[in-house]
Amino acid sequence: MSTSATAKVPPSPESPEDRRPPQNAVDRYFKISERGSTLAREIRGGLATFFAMAYIIVLNPIILGSAKDMYGHQLDNGQLVTATALTAAFTTLLMGVIGNVPIALAAGLGVNSVVALQLAPRMSWPDAMGMVVLAGFVVMLLVATGLRERVMNAVPYGLRKAIAIGIGLFIMLIGLVDSGFVTRMPDAAQTTVPLQLGTGGHLVGWPVLVFVLGVLLTLALIVRKTPGAILISIVVMTVVAMIINALADIPTWGLTTPEWPGNPVATPDFGLVGQVSLFGGFEKVGVLTGVLFVFTVLLSCFFDAMGTIMAVSDEAKLTDAEGQMPGINKVLLVDGLAVASGGASSASATTCFVESTAGVGEGARTGFANIVTGALFAVALFLTPVATMVPSQAATPALVAVGFLILAGSIREIDWADFTIAIPAFVTMLMMPFTYSITNGIGMGFVAFCVLRLAAGRGREVPVAMYAVSAVFAFYYLMPALGLT
Protein backbone atom coordinates (compact mmCIF):
# COMPACT_ATOMS: atom_id res chain seq x y z
CA MET A 1 0.00 0.00 0.00
CA SER A 2 1.01 3.49 -0.61
CA THR A 3 -0.86 6.49 0.81
CA SER A 4 -0.13 10.05 -0.17
CA ALA A 5 1.05 12.72 2.23
CA THR A 6 2.73 16.07 1.71
CA ALA A 7 5.45 17.52 3.89
CA LYS A 8 4.39 20.88 5.28
CA VAL A 9 7.16 21.82 7.73
CA PRO A 10 10.70 20.57 7.11
CA PRO A 11 12.07 18.73 10.12
CA SER A 12 15.19 19.75 11.93
CA PRO A 13 18.35 17.87 10.95
CA GLU A 14 20.00 15.30 13.14
CA SER A 15 21.94 16.83 15.99
CA PRO A 16 25.71 17.14 15.32
CA GLU A 17 26.61 14.71 18.09
CA ASP A 18 24.68 11.96 16.26
CA ARG A 19 26.99 12.28 13.26
CA ARG A 20 30.33 10.46 13.17
CA PRO A 21 33.08 9.98 10.59
CA PRO A 22 32.47 7.05 8.19
CA GLN A 23 33.54 3.74 9.73
CA ASN A 24 34.05 1.75 6.50
CA ALA A 25 33.26 1.64 2.78
CA VAL A 26 29.63 0.60 3.35
CA ASP A 27 29.16 3.41 5.85
CA ARG A 28 30.73 5.87 3.40
CA TYR A 29 28.65 4.78 0.39
CA PHE A 30 25.30 4.80 2.19
CA LYS A 31 26.20 7.83 4.35
CA ILE A 32 25.06 5.97 7.46
CA SER A 33 27.08 7.97 9.97
CA GLU A 34 26.64 11.20 8.01
CA ARG A 35 22.90 10.90 8.44
CA GLY A 36 23.17 10.19 12.15
CA SER A 37 22.31 6.49 11.90
CA THR A 38 24.10 3.24 12.72
CA LEU A 39 24.36 -0.13 11.02
CA ALA A 40 22.24 -1.68 13.79
CA ARG A 41 19.47 0.89 13.26
CA GLU A 42 19.51 0.29 9.51
CA ILE A 43 19.20 -3.48 9.98
CA ARG A 44 16.44 -3.05 12.54
CA GLY A 45 14.65 -0.62 10.25
CA GLY A 46 14.91 -2.96 7.28
CA LEU A 47 13.40 -5.79 9.30
CA ALA A 48 10.54 -3.59 10.52
CA THR A 49 9.70 -2.43 6.99
CA PHE A 50 9.63 -5.97 5.65
CA PHE A 51 7.31 -7.28 8.33
CA ALA A 52 5.07 -4.23 7.94
CA MET A 53 4.57 -4.80 4.20
CA ALA A 54 5.10 -8.55 3.74
CA TYR A 55 1.32 -8.98 3.53
CA ILE A 56 1.56 -7.92 -0.13
CA ILE A 57 3.07 -11.32 -0.96
CA VAL A 58 -0.31 -12.82 -0.03
CA LEU A 59 -2.69 -10.04 -1.06
CA ASN A 60 -1.38 -9.27 -4.54
CA PRO A 61 -1.78 -12.87 -5.80
CA ILE A 62 -5.31 -12.97 -4.34
CA ILE A 63 -6.37 -9.79 -6.16
CA LEU A 64 -4.73 -10.65 -9.49
CA GLY A 65 -5.41 -14.38 -9.28
CA SER A 66 -9.15 -13.96 -8.72
CA ALA A 67 -9.66 -12.11 -12.03
CA LYS A 68 -9.99 -13.48 -15.56
CA ASP A 69 -8.90 -11.95 -18.83
CA MET A 70 -11.16 -11.70 -21.88
CA TYR A 71 -10.35 -15.33 -22.75
CA GLY A 72 -11.24 -16.63 -19.29
CA HIS A 73 -7.62 -17.23 -18.29
CA GLN A 74 -6.50 -16.80 -14.67
CA LEU A 75 -2.96 -16.27 -13.45
CA ASP A 76 -1.40 -19.05 -11.40
CA ASN A 77 -1.31 -18.22 -7.68
CA GLY A 78 2.12 -19.74 -7.07
CA GLN A 79 3.63 -17.93 -10.04
CA LEU A 80 2.10 -14.68 -8.78
CA VAL A 81 3.73 -15.15 -5.38
CA THR A 82 7.08 -15.58 -7.11
CA ALA A 83 6.54 -12.54 -9.34
CA THR A 84 5.44 -10.37 -6.40
CA ALA A 85 8.37 -11.31 -4.18
CA LEU A 86 10.88 -11.12 -7.05
CA THR A 87 9.87 -7.62 -8.13
CA ALA A 88 9.70 -6.35 -4.55
CA ALA A 89 13.20 -7.69 -3.88
CA PHE A 90 14.69 -6.27 -7.09
CA THR A 91 13.14 -2.79 -6.90
CA THR A 92 13.71 -2.39 -3.15
CA LEU A 93 17.39 -3.27 -3.56
CA LEU A 94 17.64 -0.92 -6.52
CA MET A 95 16.12 1.95 -4.55
CA GLY A 96 18.60 1.31 -1.76
CA VAL A 97 21.66 1.22 -4.01
CA ILE A 98 20.73 4.04 -6.40
CA GLY A 99 18.35 6.25 -4.42
CA ASN A 100 19.98 5.61 -1.01
CA VAL A 101 16.71 6.17 0.83
CA PRO A 102 14.85 3.78 3.20
CA ILE A 103 11.84 3.46 0.89
CA ALA A 104 10.82 -0.09 0.01
CA LEU A 105 8.71 -0.99 -3.03
CA ALA A 106 6.24 -3.72 -3.93
CA ALA A 107 3.11 -4.29 -6.03
CA GLY A 108 0.77 -1.38 -5.33
CA LEU A 109 -2.66 -1.98 -3.86
CA GLY A 110 -5.08 -0.06 -6.02
CA VAL A 111 -3.22 -0.27 -9.28
CA ASN A 112 -3.39 -4.08 -9.15
CA SER A 113 -7.17 -3.67 -8.94
CA VAL A 114 -7.05 -1.51 -12.07
CA VAL A 115 -5.13 -4.24 -13.88
CA ALA A 116 -7.32 -7.08 -12.61
CA LEU A 117 -10.76 -5.50 -12.92
CA GLN A 118 -10.44 -3.00 -15.75
CA LEU A 119 -7.62 -4.01 -18.08
CA ALA A 120 -7.63 -7.81 -18.00
CA PRO A 121 -11.36 -8.31 -18.78
CA ARG A 122 -10.88 -6.31 -22.01
CA MET A 123 -7.71 -8.07 -23.22
CA SER A 124 -5.26 -10.87 -22.42
CA TRP A 125 -3.05 -10.86 -19.33
CA PRO A 126 0.13 -10.19 -21.37
CA ASP A 127 -1.67 -7.26 -23.01
CA ALA A 128 -2.69 -5.85 -19.63
CA MET A 129 0.82 -6.17 -18.21
CA GLY A 130 2.19 -4.55 -21.35
CA MET A 131 0.17 -1.45 -20.57
CA VAL A 132 1.70 -1.39 -17.10
CA VAL A 133 5.16 -1.51 -18.67
CA LEU A 134 4.22 1.37 -20.97
CA ALA A 135 3.02 3.39 -17.98
CA GLY A 136 6.41 2.82 -16.37
CA PHE A 137 8.18 4.03 -19.50
CA VAL A 138 6.03 7.17 -19.45
CA VAL A 139 6.95 7.80 -15.81
CA MET A 140 10.66 7.48 -16.62
CA LEU A 141 10.26 9.78 -19.63
CA LEU A 142 8.52 12.38 -17.47
CA VAL A 143 11.35 12.19 -14.94
CA ALA A 144 14.04 12.45 -17.62
CA THR A 145 12.41 15.51 -19.18
CA GLY A 146 11.60 17.15 -15.85
CA LEU A 147 7.86 17.02 -16.60
CA ARG A 148 6.82 14.73 -13.76
CA GLU A 149 6.43 17.46 -11.18
CA ARG A 150 4.84 19.79 -13.75
CA VAL A 151 2.18 17.20 -14.61
CA MET A 152 1.60 16.57 -10.93
CA ASN A 153 1.06 20.27 -10.31
CA ALA A 154 -1.61 20.42 -13.04
CA VAL A 155 -4.01 18.31 -10.93
CA PRO A 156 -5.41 20.24 -7.95
CA TYR A 157 -4.27 19.02 -4.56
CA GLY A 158 -7.84 18.22 -3.49
CA LEU A 159 -8.40 16.00 -6.52
CA ARG A 160 -5.16 14.13 -5.88
CA LYS A 161 -6.40 13.36 -2.39
CA ALA A 162 -9.81 12.36 -3.76
CA ILE A 163 -8.16 9.90 -6.16
CA ALA A 164 -6.35 8.29 -3.23
CA ILE A 165 -9.57 8.14 -1.18
CA GLY A 166 -11.54 6.67 -4.08
CA ILE A 167 -8.93 3.95 -4.53
CA GLY A 168 -9.12 3.28 -0.78
CA LEU A 169 -12.92 2.89 -0.89
CA PHE A 170 -12.60 0.70 -3.98
CA ILE A 171 -10.06 -1.52 -2.23
CA MET A 172 -12.36 -1.78 0.79
CA LEU A 173 -15.30 -2.85 -1.39
CA ILE A 174 -13.14 -5.48 -3.10
CA GLY A 175 -12.22 -6.86 0.32
CA LEU A 176 -15.86 -7.05 1.39
CA VAL A 177 -16.90 -8.78 -1.85
CA ASP A 178 -13.98 -11.21 -2.10
CA SER A 179 -14.47 -12.31 1.51
CA GLY A 180 -18.17 -13.07 1.03
CA PHE A 181 -19.17 -10.45 3.62
CA VAL A 182 -21.00 -8.68 0.79
CA THR A 183 -22.32 -10.52 -2.27
CA ARG A 184 -23.73 -9.43 -5.60
CA MET A 185 -27.48 -9.66 -6.12
CA PRO A 186 -28.33 -11.69 -9.23
CA ASP A 187 -30.11 -9.79 -12.00
CA ALA A 188 -32.96 -12.29 -11.81
CA ALA A 189 -33.82 -10.94 -8.36
CA GLN A 190 -35.43 -7.89 -10.01
CA THR A 191 -34.32 -5.64 -7.18
CA THR A 192 -32.85 -2.16 -7.08
CA VAL A 193 -30.32 -3.31 -4.48
CA PRO A 194 -27.10 -4.40 -6.26
CA LEU A 195 -25.37 -5.81 -3.15
CA GLN A 196 -26.52 -7.69 -0.09
CA LEU A 197 -25.08 -8.71 3.26
CA GLY A 198 -23.54 -12.19 3.19
CA THR A 199 -25.71 -14.90 1.65
CA GLY A 200 -29.40 -14.08 1.35
CA GLY A 201 -28.96 -11.04 3.56
CA HIS A 202 -27.33 -12.97 6.42
CA LEU A 203 -23.77 -13.70 7.48
CA VAL A 204 -23.44 -17.46 7.23
CA GLY A 205 -20.49 -19.84 7.55
CA TRP A 206 -17.13 -20.20 9.22
CA PRO A 207 -15.19 -18.40 6.44
CA VAL A 208 -17.19 -15.20 6.94
CA LEU A 209 -16.59 -15.46 10.70
CA VAL A 210 -12.86 -15.66 10.03
CA PHE A 211 -13.12 -12.49 7.95
CA VAL A 212 -15.08 -10.61 10.63
CA LEU A 213 -12.65 -11.64 13.34
CA GLY A 214 -9.76 -10.70 11.04
CA VAL A 215 -11.16 -7.20 10.48
CA LEU A 216 -11.64 -6.66 14.22
CA LEU A 217 -8.15 -7.99 15.00
CA THR A 218 -6.49 -5.87 12.29
CA LEU A 219 -8.23 -2.68 13.37
CA ALA A 220 -7.51 -3.39 17.04
CA LEU A 221 -3.81 -3.82 16.28
CA ILE A 222 -3.81 -0.62 14.24
CA VAL A 223 -5.47 1.28 17.09
CA ARG A 224 -2.77 -0.03 19.42
CA LYS A 225 -0.16 1.05 16.82
CA THR A 226 1.30 -2.45 16.73
CA PRO A 227 4.17 -2.75 14.21
CA GLY A 228 3.29 -5.16 11.40
CA ALA A 229 -0.41 -5.13 12.38
CA ILE A 230 -1.65 -6.29 8.97
CA LEU A 231 0.83 -9.15 8.66
CA ILE A 232 0.16 -10.29 12.24
CA SER A 233 -3.57 -10.41 11.55
CA ILE A 234 -3.09 -12.44 8.36
CA VAL A 235 -0.87 -14.98 10.15
CA VAL A 236 -3.18 -15.30 13.17
CA MET A 237 -6.34 -15.68 11.12
CA THR A 238 -4.68 -18.20 8.81
CA VAL A 239 -3.88 -20.34 11.86
CA VAL A 240 -7.48 -19.92 13.08
CA ALA A 241 -8.73 -20.92 9.62
CA MET A 242 -6.51 -24.02 9.66
CA ILE A 243 -7.90 -25.04 13.05
CA ILE A 244 -11.50 -24.51 11.93
CA ASN A 245 -10.84 -26.33 8.68
CA ALA A 246 -9.51 -29.32 10.64
CA LEU A 247 -12.55 -29.43 12.93
CA ALA A 248 -15.38 -28.54 10.54
CA ASP A 249 -16.44 -29.77 7.11
CA ILE A 250 -16.01 -26.70 4.87
CA PRO A 251 -16.49 -27.30 1.12
CA THR A 252 -14.59 -24.18 0.09
CA TRP A 253 -12.81 -21.22 1.60
CA GLY A 254 -12.83 -19.21 -1.61
CA LEU A 255 -9.59 -18.91 -3.51
CA THR A 256 -7.36 -21.18 -1.43
CA THR A 257 -7.57 -24.01 1.06
CA PRO A 258 -6.02 -23.38 4.49
CA GLU A 259 -3.95 -26.53 4.79
CA TRP A 260 -0.35 -26.64 5.94
CA PRO A 261 1.86 -27.62 2.99
CA GLY A 262 3.87 -30.80 3.29
CA ASN A 263 7.00 -28.86 2.39
CA PRO A 264 6.88 -25.10 3.09
CA VAL A 265 9.94 -24.51 0.88
CA ALA A 266 9.75 -24.75 -2.90
CA THR A 267 11.65 -23.69 -5.99
CA PRO A 268 10.31 -20.37 -7.33
CA ASP A 269 8.17 -20.61 -10.45
CA PHE A 270 9.17 -17.80 -12.83
CA GLY A 271 6.60 -18.77 -15.45
CA LEU A 272 4.97 -15.32 -15.56
CA VAL A 273 8.17 -13.32 -15.89
CA GLY A 274 8.44 -11.79 -19.35
CA GLN A 275 4.87 -12.70 -20.38
CA VAL A 276 4.19 -9.24 -21.80
CA SER A 277 2.70 -7.83 -24.99
CA LEU A 278 3.45 -4.11 -25.18
CA PHE A 279 0.93 -3.10 -27.83
CA GLY A 280 -1.48 -6.04 -28.03
CA GLY A 281 -3.99 -4.30 -25.78
CA PHE A 282 -4.42 -1.45 -28.26
CA GLU A 283 -5.60 -3.95 -30.87
CA LYS A 284 -8.26 -5.21 -28.45
CA VAL A 285 -9.69 -1.93 -27.13
CA GLY A 286 -8.58 0.69 -29.64
CA VAL A 287 -5.98 3.43 -29.42
CA LEU A 288 -8.02 5.97 -27.40
CA THR A 289 -9.23 3.50 -24.78
CA GLY A 290 -5.75 2.00 -24.61
CA VAL A 291 -4.21 5.40 -24.00
CA LEU A 292 -6.77 6.06 -21.25
CA PHE A 293 -5.95 2.71 -19.64
CA VAL A 294 -2.23 3.53 -19.63
CA PHE A 295 -3.07 6.98 -18.26
CA THR A 296 -5.16 5.42 -15.48
CA VAL A 297 -2.31 3.12 -14.43
CA LEU A 298 0.02 6.11 -14.59
CA LEU A 299 -2.20 8.21 -12.31
CA SER A 300 -2.72 5.32 -9.88
CA CYS A 301 1.05 5.18 -9.35
CA PHE A 302 2.04 8.77 -10.04
CA PHE A 303 0.62 10.91 -7.24
CA ASP A 304 0.59 8.21 -4.59
CA ALA A 305 4.29 7.49 -5.08
CA MET A 306 5.20 11.17 -5.05
CA GLY A 307 3.37 11.73 -1.77
CA THR A 308 4.85 8.61 -0.20
CA ILE A 309 8.39 9.57 -1.19
CA MET A 310 8.01 13.00 0.35
CA ALA A 311 6.31 11.65 3.49
CA VAL A 312 8.98 9.04 4.19
CA SER A 313 11.86 11.36 3.37
CA ASP A 314 10.38 14.02 5.63
CA GLU A 315 10.01 11.60 8.53
CA ALA A 316 13.56 10.34 7.95
CA LYS A 317 14.79 13.95 8.01
CA LEU A 318 16.22 13.75 4.50
CA THR A 319 14.71 17.04 3.30
CA ASP A 320 16.46 20.39 3.24
CA ALA A 321 15.37 23.75 4.67
CA GLU A 322 12.95 24.25 1.75
CA GLY A 323 11.36 20.86 2.29
CA GLN A 324 12.99 19.40 -0.84
CA MET A 325 14.85 16.10 -0.93
CA PRO A 326 18.31 16.27 -2.55
CA GLY A 327 18.74 13.66 -5.28
CA ILE A 328 14.99 13.08 -5.66
CA ASN A 329 15.32 12.52 -9.42
CA LYS A 330 17.22 9.27 -8.75
CA VAL A 331 14.40 8.15 -6.47
CA LEU A 332 11.75 9.09 -9.02
CA LEU A 333 13.64 7.32 -11.80
CA VAL A 334 13.79 4.09 -9.78
CA ASP A 335 10.08 4.46 -9.05
CA GLY A 336 9.35 4.63 -12.79
CA LEU A 337 11.57 1.63 -13.46
CA ALA A 338 9.70 -0.21 -10.69
CA VAL A 339 6.37 0.36 -12.43
CA ALA A 340 7.74 -1.10 -15.67
CA SER A 341 9.46 -4.05 -13.98
CA GLY A 342 6.25 -4.92 -12.14
CA GLY A 343 4.45 -5.23 -15.46
CA ALA A 344 7.33 -7.19 -16.98
CA SER A 345 7.08 -9.79 -14.21
CA SER A 346 3.23 -9.85 -14.26
CA ALA A 347 3.14 -8.66 -10.64
CA SER A 348 1.36 -5.42 -11.67
CA ALA A 349 2.89 -1.99 -11.14
CA THR A 350 5.39 -1.78 -8.30
CA THR A 351 5.45 1.39 -6.25
CA CYS A 352 6.75 2.95 -3.03
CA PHE A 353 5.17 1.72 0.19
CA VAL A 354 4.27 4.08 3.01
CA GLU A 355 4.90 1.15 5.38
CA SER A 356 8.53 2.16 4.96
CA THR A 357 7.81 4.61 7.77
CA ALA A 358 7.88 1.57 10.09
CA GLY A 359 11.57 1.20 9.30
CA VAL A 360 12.18 4.92 9.65
CA GLY A 361 10.53 4.74 13.05
CA GLU A 362 13.11 2.10 14.01
CA GLY A 363 15.94 4.45 13.02
CA ALA A 364 16.52 3.76 9.30
CA ARG A 365 17.87 6.76 7.41
CA THR A 366 19.67 5.27 4.40
CA GLY A 367 19.33 2.81 1.56
CA PHE A 368 21.11 0.12 3.58
CA ALA A 369 17.78 -0.60 5.29
CA ASN A 370 16.46 -1.45 1.81
CA ILE A 371 19.25 -3.99 1.38
CA VAL A 372 17.88 -5.83 4.42
CA THR A 373 14.25 -5.54 3.28
CA GLY A 374 15.07 -6.59 -0.28
CA ALA A 375 17.07 -9.59 0.93
CA LEU A 376 14.11 -10.78 2.99
CA PHE A 377 11.81 -10.51 -0.05
CA ALA A 378 14.36 -12.61 -1.94
CA VAL A 379 14.17 -15.27 0.79
CA ALA A 380 10.36 -15.19 0.48
CA LEU A 381 10.76 -16.40 -3.12
CA PHE A 382 11.30 -19.89 -1.72
CA LEU A 383 8.28 -19.83 0.61
CA THR A 384 5.54 -19.95 -2.04
CA PRO A 385 3.69 -22.93 -0.46
CA VAL A 386 3.28 -20.95 2.75
CA ALA A 387 1.95 -17.87 0.96
CA THR A 388 -0.54 -19.81 -1.18
CA MET A 389 -2.14 -21.57 1.80
CA VAL A 390 -3.65 -18.33 3.13
CA PRO A 391 -7.44 -18.24 2.53
CA SER A 392 -8.92 -15.05 1.11
CA GLN A 393 -10.98 -14.55 4.29
CA ALA A 394 -7.77 -14.28 6.31
CA ALA A 395 -6.14 -11.83 3.90
CA THR A 396 -9.02 -9.58 2.81
CA PRO A 397 -9.37 -7.87 6.22
CA ALA A 398 -6.15 -6.13 5.21
CA LEU A 399 -7.99 -4.53 2.27
CA VAL A 400 -10.57 -3.05 4.63
CA ALA A 401 -7.84 -1.73 6.91
CA VAL A 402 -5.79 -0.35 4.01
CA GLY A 403 -8.90 1.36 2.62
CA PHE A 404 -9.51 3.05 5.96
CA LEU A 405 -5.89 4.15 6.33
CA ILE A 406 -5.90 5.73 2.86
CA LEU A 407 -9.13 7.56 3.60
CA ALA A 408 -8.03 8.71 7.06
CA GLY A 409 -4.76 10.05 5.71
CA SER A 410 -6.34 12.09 2.90
CA ILE A 411 -9.91 13.20 3.57
CA ARG A 412 -9.01 16.09 5.85
CA GLU A 413 -6.71 17.52 3.19
CA ILE A 414 -9.61 18.41 0.86
CA ASP A 415 -11.02 21.95 0.97
CA TRP A 416 -14.70 21.12 1.47
CA ALA A 417 -15.60 24.82 1.64
CA ASP A 418 -14.65 25.31 -2.03
CA PHE A 419 -17.42 23.53 -3.95
CA THR A 420 -15.43 23.67 -7.21
CA ILE A 421 -13.01 21.26 -5.52
CA ALA A 422 -15.33 19.52 -3.05
CA ILE A 423 -17.89 18.38 -5.63
CA PRO A 424 -15.35 16.92 -8.11
CA ALA A 425 -13.59 15.27 -5.17
CA PHE A 426 -16.93 13.81 -4.01
CA VAL A 427 -17.65 12.54 -7.53
CA THR A 428 -14.16 11.05 -7.88
CA MET A 429 -14.12 9.15 -4.60
CA LEU A 430 -17.66 7.75 -4.94
CA MET A 431 -17.67 6.83 -8.62
CA MET A 432 -14.70 4.50 -8.19
CA PRO A 433 -16.45 1.97 -5.90
CA PHE A 434 -19.98 2.63 -7.25
CA THR A 435 -18.99 1.98 -10.87
CA TYR A 436 -16.31 -0.55 -9.91
CA SER A 437 -13.91 1.50 -12.01
CA ILE A 438 -11.00 3.73 -11.05
CA THR A 439 -10.96 5.14 -14.59
CA ASN A 440 -14.54 6.38 -14.27
CA GLY A 441 -13.83 8.04 -10.94
CA ILE A 442 -10.81 9.93 -12.28
CA GLY A 443 -12.47 10.91 -15.56
CA MET A 444 -15.75 12.12 -14.06
CA GLY A 445 -13.92 14.04 -11.35
CA PHE A 446 -11.67 15.79 -13.89
CA VAL A 447 -14.61 16.74 -16.15
CA ALA A 448 -16.66 17.97 -13.18
CA PHE A 449 -13.76 20.11 -11.98
CA CYS A 450 -13.31 21.86 -15.33
CA VAL A 451 -17.05 22.45 -15.79
CA LEU A 452 -17.54 23.84 -12.28
CA ARG A 453 -14.52 26.12 -12.45
CA LEU A 454 -15.84 27.51 -15.75
CA ALA A 455 -19.33 27.92 -14.24
CA ALA A 456 -17.84 29.83 -11.31
CA GLY A 457 -15.98 32.17 -13.63
CA ARG A 458 -12.65 30.71 -12.58
CA GLY A 459 -11.76 28.97 -15.82
CA ARG A 460 -8.40 30.71 -16.05
CA GLU A 461 -7.34 28.96 -12.83
CA VAL A 462 -7.53 25.56 -14.54
CA PRO A 463 -4.22 24.41 -16.07
CA VAL A 464 -4.27 23.71 -19.80
CA ALA A 465 -3.22 20.12 -19.10
CA MET A 466 -6.40 19.57 -17.06
CA TYR A 467 -8.56 20.82 -19.93
CA ALA A 468 -6.73 18.53 -22.35
CA VAL A 469 -7.07 15.43 -20.18
CA SER A 470 -10.71 16.19 -19.35
CA ALA A 471 -11.49 16.59 -23.06
CA VAL A 472 -10.04 13.15 -23.71
CA PHE A 473 -12.18 11.65 -20.96
CA ALA A 474 -15.31 13.46 -22.21
CA PHE A 475 -14.71 12.13 -25.72
CA TYR A 476 -14.20 8.65 -24.25
CA TYR A 477 -17.62 8.78 -22.56
CA LEU A 478 -19.27 10.09 -25.75
CA MET A 479 -17.80 7.39 -27.98
CA PRO A 480 -20.82 5.01 -27.72
CA ALA A 481 -23.24 7.84 -28.59
CA LEU A 482 -21.06 8.75 -31.56
CA GLY A 483 -21.00 5.15 -32.74
CA LEU A 484 -17.24 4.86 -32.27
CA THR A 485 -17.23 1.70 -30.10
From TrEMBL:
InterPro entries: Azg-like, NCS2. The keyword Transferase does not apply. Keywords: Membrane, Transmembrane, Transmembrane helix, Transport. Residues 1-24 are annotated as: Disordered. The chain crosses the membrane at residues 43-64, 85-108, 128-147, 159-183, 203-223, 230-248, 285-303, 368-388, 438-455, 462-479. The keyword Transmembrane helix applies. GO terms for cellular component: endomembrane system; plasma membrane. Belongs to the nucleobase:cation symporter-2 (NCS2) (TC 2.A.40) family. Azg-like subfamily. This is NCS2 family permease.
